[in-house]
Amino acid sequence: MILIHPPVAKPGEPPAGIARLSGALGDHAVLHTVLDANIEGLLYLLKSPCPHVPDDAWTRRSFRNGLRNIEALKDAATYRHRDRYRKVVTELGRVLEIVSKGSGATVGLANYQHETLSPLRSTDLLSAADRPESNAFYPYFRERLSGLVRQEMPRTIGFSLNFLSQAVCTFAMAGFLRREFPDIRIVLGGGLVTTWLSNPLWRDPFSGLIDHYVSGPGEEKLLKFLGESRGRNTYIPDYSLMPLEEYLSPGFVLPYSASSGCFWRRCAFCPEKAEGNPYVPISADNVVSDLTTLSERTNPSLIHLLDNAVGVNVMQALAERGPGVPWYGFARVGRQLTDPDFCAMLKRSGCVMLKLGIESGDQGVLDRMEKGVTIDMASRCLISLREAGIATYVYLIFGTPAEDLRSARRTLDFVAAHGGQIDFLNLALFNMPVGSSTATSLETRKFSEGDLSLYTDFVHPAGWDRRHARTFLDTEFKRHPVIAEILRNDPVVFTSNHAPFLVMNSR
Q: Residue 287: in which H helix or E strand, if any?
């Protein structure tokens, strides 16, 4: 079997889902190989000759610095100077933009935007499969897939499709395989596929191209599909088949999931709740054991905990007996993080940064969203983390059904008052997940014309629609001097994936 991570996703670290599948297959002695077509494909384009480079200084410099910029993202020194870091990333993006011209798509380090094909329309994805040669990555995957299939002779090829930015390329590669190797079974799994399958209106539009779908954590389901006996619930990930030296980060980043789903699972807007995904944790002892083993095998410079929210028991275990490697991840605002002593323990364990979904600075909005936290608790968390020397990446959502202009301004006031405790900000406009229970009390309408749309639009009860929320963000929120200064810290393209390196190399 071949497991494929398709373009395009941020190329700073290897795909954790495929690593866990590889661990499960290896545990059952299933012969397989792993292809990270994302990092390979992006590097292929970045290193490809371009016969018609536009004659402007920025573009010429971007091509001239191409190989040096790839290596610069692997050098910690680059992250000591944010302007230097920004220049490196934007020049690499410029090269990708130019070399992908002519394919009908614009390729970036984290996106694939086609002029006419939308990942929200099944007909467009089928068109991508019918005409794989039109894909920007076709020269790469034509040779790579053909050679790999002839070498490995697989019966099954599985794609891990997690993001919309991967969809068009996934289907182009699947279409190529179906045309050239029609007897190979094609399996589709990953986060985006899980969302598709959870939609009550899902009717398989890809019959004849895709042979099997895997929803949610795929180890046990994939083993069953392959005819293997029932295995364990969890497997230690295996990164040994991935090109660990190629990823665009200063040192190997070890991604690891200590759980699937969310332990809170009450937030009114949450996709996990809308999709009915169960919470399945790995015991804290096993998490520490896994991370210790993986750290010995891979010598990571950073551990990335991928959980929707890292459990307090896991944080406690890491604080007491972690592997001694810098780490970061999402954490839920809670009583433990208001404790300066607990935060100091986390810092000593190697915690570099925590991502916090505070969402709003208005208590009424938080209550209606069923966040289960108070503004005072969020404030004390930020203060305790700052005192401990742990950076924060705060996530905010604007335009929820519970919000209006007045409450949005309270969020502005909260952020401005805590400017000294917030290192990075992620600002998002609210999208109502398809199937959300919140939508039943609102007048809804189509979010897009695509049959694979992930969201549903709604009539905001206070008239605070996306247009009004966006205008507030652009004309008021982002222009506040304290907030504008925080936003300037955000790493371009790689955002939270590279933020810990900026923190580690600036303090």
A: helix 284-298
What is the distance between the alpha carbons of residues 345 and 320, in angstroms, rounded to a whole number? 8
Q: Could you give the count of Cα atoms lying within 13 Å of 288 in the half-sphere of its Cβ?
A: 16
Which superfamily does CATH assign the domain made up of 253-504 to? tm_1862 like domain (3.80.30.20)
Please count the other Cβ atoms lying within 10 Å of the Cβ belonging to residue 40. 18
* Ranges for all domains in the chain classified under CATH 3.80.30.20: 253-504
pTM of the model: 0.94
Instruction: Give yes or no for residue 10 having a pLDDT over 80.
Output: yes
Question: Cα–Cα distance between 80 and 12 in angstroms, integer?
Answer: 17
For residue 68, CA distances in Å to 51, 55, 63, 92 come to: 20, 21, 10, 10
Q: Count CB-CB contacts under 10 A for residue 379.
A: 18
Mean pLDDT across 116-124: 97
Task: Return the residue matching tokens 């997940």.
Answer: 433
Closest to 469 measured CA to CA, from 381, 363, 415, 396: 396
pLDDT at 197: 94
Nearest to residue 427, comparing CAs of 501, 353, 361, 505? 361
Distance CA 71, CA 457 (A): 43
Residue 213, pLDDT > 90, answer yes
Q: pLDDT for 135-149, tens place per residue?
A: 999 999 999 999 999
